[in-house]
Design a protein that fits this description.
- 82% of the residues lie in helices and 0% in strands.
- It has one helix and no strands.
- The protein is rod-shaped.
- The N and C termini lie far apart (98 Å).
- The model has no long low-confidence stretch (mean pLDDT 84).
């Protein structure tokens, strides 16, 4: 097997590239988490509004209105 000589600047360049790549992955994960949180909050809000409308409808149907 042939040995390969690597300079210090090449090692630093590789480490910088690895850190940059990890930073991009981290940024993607943070953005994906934020988007998932927003979507979850929208679903919860919609569900609460739907449940509220069912409760209101049930209350109105349970009462007799005399006109």
């Amino acid at each position: 097997m042939k040995s390969v000589t690597v300079t210090k600047s090449e090692v630093l360049f590789f480490k910088f590239g690895a850190l940059l790549f990890c930073g991009l992955i981290w940024k993607y994960l943070v953005e994906a988490t934020e988007e998932a949180s927003i979507a979850y909050n929208q679903v919860v809000t919609c569900l609460r509004e739907y449940q509220g409308s069912i409760l209101t409808l049930t209350t109105l149907q349970g009462n007799t209105m005399i006109l």
